[in-house]
Amino acid sequence: MKIVSLLPSATELICGLGLRDQLVGVSHECDYPASVVGLPILTRSRIPAGLSSDKIDALVTAQLQDAAALYDLNEDVLIALEPDLIVTQALCDVCAVSGNDVAKVIGRLPSNPQLINLEPICLDDVLATVSLLASAANTPLMGESYIASLQARINQVSTRSNTIANTDKPKVALLDWLDPLFDGGHWTPEIIALAGGEPCLGAKHQPSQRRQWQDLLAAKPDIIFVALCGFNVTRSMQDVKQFLATDAFAQLRQQAGTRVYLVDGNAYFSRPGPRLVDALEIMANALHPDIHPLPKGLPAAIKQC
After folding, report:
1. Are 101 and 75 in contact (CB under 8 A)?
2. Domain boundaries in the chain?
3. Do 3-119 and 167-303 fold alike per CATH?
4. What is the Cα–Cα distance from 143 to 149, expressed in whole angstroms?
5. CATH homologous superfamily of 167-303
6. Digit-coded pLDDT (tens) for 82-122
7. How many CA atoms lie within 13 A of 225 on its CB side?
8. Which one of 58, 67, 198, 221 has the fewest beta carbons within 10 angstroms of its own beta carbon?
9. Cα(109)–Cα(76) distance, rounded to whole angstroms?
């Protein structure tokens, strides 16, 4: 079976299922695991490189309001690959090429491939996508084994967090964009709660929302996790420095003593794939290091203040 993934999280899940050798094409954002680098790339972004975060937000907002595409699909390469299975998403137009765009090309493909749209909004949904992909690729037993291993890690964190008194659980806000402010939605509140925190910003199972500084000041988080969508730590640091230098953060710091941690949002928190379990373990360690050891090989959250 020849598989094409147009979504980074799907690429990670496919490789986690042991199907790397069947993967023949990926999106321009698929960079993990390292073995996928060099595969034919089937998408490209219309967002110019090097823009500041506020300009990226303005461009994305304008494109979405005009119903304009943020990504282009390389149809000629897709047709040449003759895939049997195409995996994309219908969850977020900002994150990847839409399933509708892919569906328009399906009729031109001689292989008549199966198309799967992934729409996970919580950890259980992520595990369900493992089963869906494994079934489509005719490897259901591999899917069961992979789900069990991911669920076991989630359960270990949850069990340890259940020993923490509610009074010892800090109020936590995760921000996945800083200019302007956006909270972390979908799976983020669930991860915070499982890690031993009290989510105080962001709607469970709902998309990230644009926020005003007043919302953050009213929430009075003990801890802010900065996990910027699409940015690694180096790029995120540029925005974090500006964030920490604002008068509004100085006010928040004075009122609530808020601490700030920086993590690689692009790798761990933005993609609804297997590394959300890594994200859970990283956050749990930052919130309660005496209770949650950091698994070997995972980077610790970087304390900013």
Report:
1. no
2. 3-119, 167-303
3. yes
4. 10
5. Nitrogenase molybdenum iron protein domain (3.40.50.1980)
6. 999 999 876 555 555 666 677 777 777 877 899 998 889 99
7. 38
8. 67
9. 10
Long-range contacts of 245-252 (CB under 8 A, 24+ apart): 246/213, 248/213, 248/216, 248/217, 251/217, 252/216, 252/217, 252/220
Which two three-digit tokens encode residue 146? 């992979």
- Both structure tokens of 214: 């007043």
Q: Which two tokens stand for residue 85?
A: 């299975």
Question: What are the angstrom distances between the C-alpha of 77 and each of 39, 43, 46?
Answer: 11, 10, 18
Rounded to a whole number of angstroms, the distance between the first and last alpha carbons of the chain is 50
- Decide if 187 contacts 126 (C-beta within 8 A): yes
Which tens digit of pLDDT belongs to each residue from 119-151? 899 999 999 999 999 999 999 999 999 999 999
Environment class of residue 111 by beta-carbon count within 10 Å: exposed (0-12), middle (13-18) or buried (19+)? middle
172 φ, ψ to 5°? -125, 135
How would CATH label the architecture of 3-119?
A: 3-Layer(aba) Sandwich (3.40)
Instruction: For residue 66, name the pLDDT band (cuts at 50, 70, 90).
Output: low
